[in-house]
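Protein in question filed below.

…
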Amino acid sequence: MLKIIRHMQRKDWELFLLSLACVAIQVWLDLKLPDYMATITRLVKTEEAVVAQVLAAGGMMLLCALGSVIALIFVGYLSAKLAANFSRHLRRDVFRRVQDFSMGEIETLSTASLITRSTNDVQQMQMIVSRGLRMMIQAPITAAMALVKISGKHWEWTAVTGGAILVVVGLVVFLVLYAHPRFRKMQSLTDDINRTMRDNLTGIRVVRAYNAEEFQEEKFQAANNRLTKNSLQARRAMAVMQPIMQVVNNILAIAIYCIGGFLIAGMSDPALQLETFSEMVVFSTYAAKLLFAFMSLNMIFNMLPRAAVSAGRINEVFATEPSIKEGTEDSGVSGCEGELEFQHVSFRYPGAEADALTDISFTAHKGEVVAFIGATGSGKSSLINLIPRFYDVTAGKILLDGKDVKSYRLKTLRDKLGIATQRAILFTGTVASNVSYGSDPLPETASEEEKAKAETALDEAIRIAQASEFVSKMPEEKDASIARGGTNVSGGQRQRLSIARAIFRRPEFYIFDDTFSALDYKTDRTLRSELKKSTEGVTTLIVAQRIGTIRDADKIIVLDDGKIVGMGTHHELLQSCQIYQEIAYTQLSKEELANG
């Protein structure tokens, strides 16, 4: 947990030190109360005492109690503020770290686990700061001050107090050994719940289409039962602590008064009896405070095991080094703009036993349309994912504008690309915000001419992507709301908006990763025709399953089992590549292929 502390800012440390001072004041005022209680006890038993002296001591007790309450209020406020600030900074740092991860790290840690780590685990850290910090500071200060106060008193009282403390320490040790592993397991079981729920919500249409509600319920119930069983085991152990501590506290109080009674009964001097009685009252109060300090450990160790596990999981995120290292270049080689070259590229997914791509070599010249086709799992998307460095090659090189993609700054590299991914992802917002996503927003000082130009570019991107028809029918057109994931539009509409987003950037390279699959043939053909006009001179890479989408490409690359098995134009491949022929004849008749 100490590693997490480095994420505290200077203001957080200031709040911590101020909170520490307030706790010290509050404990000191609390421990002054027994002294005034002893004074009042002596005054009441002393014949020479006057009421004014008793009232003065009582007034000081009230002032100490009031001061303690005020200090406690300040401690609560400062702890809450510190916890809120700390969790905000920690969540931000976790999010920034995850943003630097490649797809490999995200898949290794898993999306469900990363969500839990940035929410539930950070919340555990917030709880330990807001609730546990005061106790962790207060308990040792109270124990130290109380020990100083009771030191030098009758050894019998000290002995029974020591025995009570040993019992409490033994309970705490037992709980650490028993509960900590279960709290550690609890976080991974929470990941399972999160993962199961996420799978169910993501695939809810499939679940309902296949009447698999009962299966999903059983799956969730199994994960839920595992978490419940583990949680009950840990919570029951923690629940036993409080009553046992209360019993120990009561037995200690009885023991102190019984021993005090025997001591006083054995004394003949009234003054000594009075002094011993006062000491007994004070000692019992201080012993209770001392035991309370150890009882506070119960609450601390109730939260600490789970917080320690959460801290370890958060530290694991920070300790995971992103495999994608950023380069330093901001520009390519002069004269090589718009050119892409794969030089003997091989790629293997992390933890896989075999390569997904093997010895891939080809060149896409400026303005060319290069298409990739092959069976499912042949490596088309894997190849495309290497260009923006979602993954890095295992062997070989990828040259973009004449330079290795690894040498570019990631922002520079990705600014050169307009990507429409295989799964059309839309974000919560509007049509306009989704199409312009990732592009530099206009400054507030932008002129009307600049705003009009940006609006025209947006309209043009929507028009080219063949999205104008359905966007114009939406209630607020470009300002119409888009739900998270684009669930309020159809699959084809999502694809067209995704394509419009890529077009809006006006990049050096277009990458369309199977983004025409949900379009009907007419829309597909019209869109490609408009694309060809608007992207003249821009290198375009297309992954497709349909021959009709890629037949006009300048170069078609056929992949099979991660290897290139054919390269050429549509007509060349019909003559030379058996796999391409098989794909073509399953989609189109010989007459259609012959007539183009």
User: Anything to note?
Assistant: The first helix runs from residue 10 to 45. The mean pLDDT is 82.
